[in-house]
Structure formats: C-alpha cells, structure tokens
C-alpha cells in the first residue's frame, strides 16, 4: 500500500484558525467540499492548544489574530516540534510579510482575498508533501517512473532525457498525481517565484514536457483542466 | 545620491564670496589711500623742514665775509664729517673752491631739489644752490635718507598689508561661502529627490531661520500639501482596489463553482467561464495596483541581499526560452555579472516582465536579445526586440499606470506591467528607459543616478 493510498483512505483533518467567522466558514465549506474534516478555532490560543493536543493533517492560519497572532502561533508550534504543515493566510501581501511568515515556520503563504479552490489546492499540496516519506526515491504514475537518486525518467521502460526544470516540474506533478494543481501553484512550487507570469508561460513548459513524455496514439499523461490547471493521471 | 565635490568655481560664484571680496577690495583701497596720504604728508613735511634748514644754513654762510667763506665752508665740511649737512663752494667759473659738493646740471639757483648722487659717494640729499655777491656758488645739502627710508617702509607696509588683507579676505570669503553653498547643495539634493517622487523627503533646515531656512520652509509646506493630495488620491484608488477584491473574489468563486455544474447548458458554461476570465483580469489589475503602492511605500528590505542581475537575466532567459520558441522568436543572452544589493525575486519579476513584453510585442520570426553593457558605475541591462517598437511620444506614457501601447490591444495584460517594473526598479535605486532599437524597442535598466 503506497502512502498516497493511505492518505486517500482516511479523511484528512484540517484545523482552521481564523477570527473572522465569515472567512472561517468559507474556508471550512471549501475544504469540506474537497472531502476534509474541518475544525475551526476562533483565536490563536485555542488554535495553538488544539493543534498541540490533536493530530491534524494541516492547519490554515490567519496571519493577524487577536492576542496571539499567526506568526507567534506557528513559531510556538515549531518550538513544540509539531510539524503539521501550516498554510498562512494574510491580507498583508507585502513580500516582506511572506518572508516573515515562511521564516517563522509557515509552509505556504496565501494572500487574501483568495479563490477558495486555490486555497484547497494549496492545503492538499501541503498534506501530500508532508505525507510523502522523506526516503521516497522512486515516484511512479502510470507508466512514468522518476528516480530521484539517479535523476532519471523512464516512460514505459524507455529512458527520457529531461532538462533540470522539466525534471522538477514532472517531480512536482508526480508528487501531486491525480490532483489538480493551478498554474500559479506550479510556478511557486517549481520555480519558487510569487508573481503571476501569465498562463502561456506555464502552458509552453507543460507542452514541452508532454512532448517528451507522451507516446504516439496514447492520451497525454498530463491533463489540462480548463480554468483550474493541470493534473497528472495517477494511472 | 553622491555629493558633488565643491569646486572653487562654484564657491567663487556665491553671493557671500562676492560680497566679502567686494568688501575686502574696498577695505584694501581705503588702506592704500590712508597709508599713501600719511606718507605724502609726512614726506612733504620732512622736505619742507629740510628746505627751511637749508635756507637757514645758507643764510648763515652768506652772512660770513666773502674772503672768509672758503675757509668757513671747508671748516663746516670737516666738522660735519659724514653727518647730516654738506657744503660746497664753486668759483664764478664753476671750479670747486671748497667743500665736497659739485653743482649738478639739473639744479636751479634758489630752488632746493632732491639729488641722488652729489659726488664723493654723497646722496641722496636735498641740495640748495645760492649765488654769492661775488658771483660764486654756495651749495648747501642735507641728507634725506630718512625720507627715502620712510618711503620704502611705507611701501613695504602697503605690500605686506595688501597680501595679508588679500589672504584674510579670500579665506573669510571662502569660509563664509562654504556654509551657505553646502546648504544650497543639500537643498538641491532634497529638491531633486522630491522631483523624482520621494515626497516624504523634506528640505533640510539649519534652524537659524535665515533666508535659506525661510525658503526651505516654504518649499516643505508646498511638498507636504502635494504629498497629502497625492496620498489622498492614491489612498482612494487603493481603498477601492482593496475593498472590491473580497466581494469580487467571492463572485468569482461562485461563478466558477456554478460553471462546474454538469447540468449546465454548454453556452451558459462558456459565458460563465468568460465572466470568470474577465473577473480574473479585474482582480489581476487590483492586485498589481496594490503591489505598486506597496513597492512605492518603499520599506521593503527583508529580502535584500547580494544578487547578480546578469545571473537573474540568465534564469529569466531559461524560463522564457520555450515561450519564445513557441512564438517563433529567437531569444539570445549575452550578460556579464552585475552585482547588486537587492531582492532576487523582485528583480527576477521585473526582468521577466520585460522579456515577456518583448516576446509578446516582438516580430514573429524575430529576435529578442538580453544584453549588458557600460562600465561598473553606469552599467545597463537591455531587453531588445525587433518588433514594431513604441512611437517616441508614447514611450513616457506607457510607463504610467493603465496605459497600453496602441499596438497592445490584442495582447493580454493588465496595462500595469511596466508600472510594476518601474516600482520594483525604483525600490532598488534603478530606473527603466525605453529606447528605439531601429527597428523595435530597447527596455533598458540602469542605475537611477
């Protein structure tokens, strides 16, 4: 049984720490719609307490909370050696704020207002990354095999030569196989930049990767999901 | 901003220097006049006194019996030795009879005159010639070395005090000019910064409430007013962008959710998708507007580190090479290392934006070149395409918010891309220049000043 199978079997538990009840309900509704079990905490202290005592799969954390603020919550969590992935959500879009959030121990940073499905996608990317065993050295999806040690890729047993960024793009898609990931998330996670480079740019990179992976006559392993992003078939 | 060195030519032009120099010159002229007058009056007085003494001595000699006169002249000459007074007696034929003096050719009878060399090493003297009843010539002279010494001393005083006054006045003039000149320089630097859009800068005040302080105070009040007005306008824009983003994001989410409904008629779904796309454009513009405001607020330093703009350009070229190829454009890179202190991610975004534009507005089958040039102080990084370019009168306008070039209508974009680039570069002390590539456009990044 693979890790992702185990992940799919149990309903992931998400803790939403958010003082604005409207936003909290919105987040909870979207995550529940994606099949998650959601708990809401209305302030930092309660959130910190529940996150410490109960085992959650992921936490969405408002950056600005009364009393104990978001940065403090994530810092204390990390001090207590709780490694639950944290998606920081903030109205502060400044790059300096993002850096502060990630330095304090946040795993990803989302700026308000956000598209709910984008938020859910990010939470799921975080959960999968967290569940991926660190010693996983071979990723498989359908007939694609990616060896992280030898840095080789085989499609149906045939070696495919990928450039550095193509390899990283495929690795990211394979780690999130079977799930839709937006172009923005791809750009942030694979290239590490936080601006919108436009849809075309990611499209051509995907097109190049497809050209190398796809076999004549067979459907492409990477599906375009209109208005949302891409999905690599789990196979 | 680097302070320009103070040159003497600049100091010389200040009013403080000119006024001090003028005052110094007037003072020097006064000193010359005063010293000259003292000298002239003293010299005349001394000469008059010599003349009276000479007349007296001559009178006494002429009172001596004519036969005894040669012996008397000889006696007085010997008695005087090398002293003050000198005597001489010449026969009616002009031949010397007694004494050491001879009749100089320039001398007139009864008119005392200064004689430089009266023979026998005597001179300068004041010399008087008198005719005796027997037709002989009596010469009486008096040493005037003292008067000559006085003249030399007076001249010396004039020259040395002149030099001292010139040095003193020069030093004072420079000293008095430096302070105001430095302040004017500070005011100029502040006004340049304000003109470049740093409305938070103020003219420096010396706290003396002098004319420069009063001027700076007036300008500061004006800048304050302009800043407040601009902040109000920007505040309103930002508030609209900020407040509309949340409801619009909700609308977008709802429309997107509805569009996912399988029961939806295909044309309804297409219209909903179009509406979502349009909303995305609006949200993108709002996000860009708010980012520009943040960048212009200019407090971002957390991400600043030593970076290499040349290497950043190379990464951008890597990222955009597939897009260029897809558009049938050759993307080439020839960049030297450009070490800077800055935010790598922001600079990457700025260069990306320029390369994206060059590909978007370049010529199909054309060429986009990323190059560096210049020297360490005035380097530049160019992103050049060979497309239609931008007309000269439109180049400034495209750097303003929301402006899109006349040939941009068909290309996607918020119209804020170059404003974001300008804001990012501004936060790094860099600037964006648009130039004609003949054909095409060069987007050039250079140090601001």
Structural class of chain A: alpha/beta
**Total E-strand runs of chain B:** 12
Q: What integer value in Å does the Rg of chain A equal?
A: 18 Å
- Count of domains of chain A: 2
Low-confidence stretches of chain A: 1-9
Tally of DSSP helical segments of chain B:
10
Series of H and E elements of chain A: HEHEHEHEHEHEEEEHEHHEE
Give the proportion of residues in helices of chain B.
55-70%
Q: How far apart are the termini of chain B?
A: 7 Å
CATH fold-level name of the domain at 304-447 in chain B: Heat Shock Protein 90
Reported for the largest beta sheet of chain A, the result is:
5 strands, parallel
Mean pLDDT of chain A: 87
Kindly provide the name of the CATH class of the largest domain in chain A. Answer: Alpha Beta
Q: Rough shape of chain A?
A: elongated
Largest sheet of chain B: 5 strands, antiparallel
Helix content of chain A: 40-55%
CATH class wording of the domain at 304-447 in chain B: Alpha Beta
Topology record:
The complex is a heterodimer of chains A (235) and B (449).
Chain A: H1 3-9, E1 13-17, H2 21-33, E2 37-41, H3 44-53, E3 58-62, H4 70-79, E4 86-90, H5 95-104, E5 108-111, H6 116-131, E6 138-141, E7 144-147, E8 152-155, E9 158-160, H7 164-175, E10 180-181, H8 183-191, H9 199-213, E11 222-225, E12 229-232
Parallel strand pairs in A: 1-2, 1-3, 3-4, 4-5
Antiparallel strand pairs in A: 6-7, 7-8, 8-9, 10-12, 11-12
Helix pairs in contact in A: 2-6, 3-4, 7-8
Chain B: H1 8-12, H2 15-62, H3 69-80, E1 85-90, E2 96-99, E3 113-115, E4 125-131, E5 137-143, H4 145-195, H5 211-259, H6 266-297, E6 304-308, H7 309-326, E7 330-334, E8 339-343, H8 344-361, E9 367-373, E10 380-384, H9 392-395, H10 417-427, E11 430-436, E12 441-447
Parallel strand pairs in B: 7-9
Antiparallel strand pairs in B: 1-2, 1-5, 3-4, 4-5, 6-8, 9-10, 10-12, 11-12
Helix pairs in contact in B: 2-4, 5-6, 6-10, 7-8, 8-10
């Amino acid at each position: 049984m693979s890790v992702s199978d185990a992940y799919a079997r149990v309903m992931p538990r998400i803790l939403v720490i958010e003082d604005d009840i409207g936003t909290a309900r919105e987040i909870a509704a979207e995550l529940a719609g994606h099949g998650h079990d959601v708990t809401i905490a209305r302030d930092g202290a309660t959130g910190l307490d529940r996150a410490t005592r109960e085992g959650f799969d992921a936490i969405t954390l408002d950056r600005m909370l009364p009393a104990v603020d978001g940065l403090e919550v994530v810092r204390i969590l990390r001090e207590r050696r709780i490694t639950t992935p944290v998606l920081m959500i903030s109205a502060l879009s400044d790059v300096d704020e993002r850096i502060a959030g990630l330095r304090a121990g946040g795993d990803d940073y989302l700026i308000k207002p956000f598209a709910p499905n984008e938020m859910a996608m990010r939470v799921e990317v975080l959960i999968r990354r967290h569940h991926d065993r660190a010693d996983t050295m071979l990723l498989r999806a359908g007939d694609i095999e990616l060896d992280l040690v030898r840095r080789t890729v085989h499609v149906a047993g045939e070696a495919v030569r990928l450039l550095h960024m193509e390899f990283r793009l495929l690795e990211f898609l394979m780690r999130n196989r079977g799930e839709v990931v937006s172009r923005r998330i791809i750009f942030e996670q694979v290239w590490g930049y936080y601006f919108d480079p436009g849809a075309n740019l990611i499209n051509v990179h995907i097109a190049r990767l497809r050209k190398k992976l796809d076999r004549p006559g067979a459907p492409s392993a990477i599906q375009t999901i209109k208005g949302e992003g891409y999905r690599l078939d789990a196979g | 901003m680097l302070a320009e060195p103070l040159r003497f030519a600049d100091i010389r032009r200040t009013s403080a220097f000119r006024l001090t120099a003028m005052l110094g010159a007037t003072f020097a002229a006064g000193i010359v006049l005063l010293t000259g007058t003292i000298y002239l009056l003293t010299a005349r007085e001394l000469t008059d006194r010599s003349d009276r003494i000479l007349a007296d001595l001559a009178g006494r000699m002429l009172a001596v019996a004519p036969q005894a006169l040669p012996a008397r002249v000889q006696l007085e000459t010997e008695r005087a030795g090398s002293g003050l007074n000198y005597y001489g007696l010449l026969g009616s034929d002009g031949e010397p009879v007694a004494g050491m003096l001879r009749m100089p050719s320039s001398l007139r009878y009864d008119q005392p005159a200064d004689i430089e060399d009266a023979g026998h090493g005597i001179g300068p003297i004041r010399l008087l010639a008198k005719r005796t009843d027997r037709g002989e010539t009596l010469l009486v002279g008096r040493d005037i070395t003292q008067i000559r010494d006085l003249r030399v001393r007076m001249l010396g005083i004039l020259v040395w005090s002149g030099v001292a006054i010139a040095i003193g006045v020069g030093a004072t003039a420079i000293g008095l000019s430096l302070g105001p000149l430095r302040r004017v320089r500070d005011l100029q630097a502040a006004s340049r910064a304000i003109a470049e859009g740093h409305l938070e800068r103020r003219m420096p005040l010396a706290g003396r409430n002098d004319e420069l302080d009063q001027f700076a105070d007036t300008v500061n009040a004006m800048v304050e007013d302009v800043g407040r007005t601009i902040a109000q306008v920007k505040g309103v824009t930002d508030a609209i962008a900020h407040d509309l983003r949340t409801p619009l994001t909700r609308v977008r989410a709802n429309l997107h959710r509805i569009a996912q409904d399988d029961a939806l008629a295909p044309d309804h779904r297409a219209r909903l998708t179009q509406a979502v796309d349009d909303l995305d454009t609006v949200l993108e513009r709002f996000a860009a507007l708010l980012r520009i405001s943040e960048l212009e607020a200019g407090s971002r330093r957390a991400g600043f580190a030593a970076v290499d703009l040349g290497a950043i350009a190379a990464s951008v070229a890597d990222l955009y090479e597939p897009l260029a190829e897809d558009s049938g454009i050759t993307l080439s890179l020839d960049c030297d290392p450009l070490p800077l202190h800055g935010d790598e991610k922001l600079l990457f975004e700025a260069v990306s934006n320029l390369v994206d534009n060059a590909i978007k507005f370049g010529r199909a089958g054309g060429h986009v070149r990323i190059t560096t040039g210049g020297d360490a102080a005035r380097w530049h990084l160019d992103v050049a395409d060979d497309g239609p370019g931008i007309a000269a009168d439109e180049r400034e306008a495209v750097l303003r918010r929301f402006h899109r070039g006349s040939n941009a209508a068909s290309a996607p974009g918020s119209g804020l891309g170059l404003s974001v680039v300008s804001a990012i570069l501004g936060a790094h002390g860099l600037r964006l220049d648009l130039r004609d590539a003949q054909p095409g456009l060069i987007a050039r990044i250079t140090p601001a000043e």
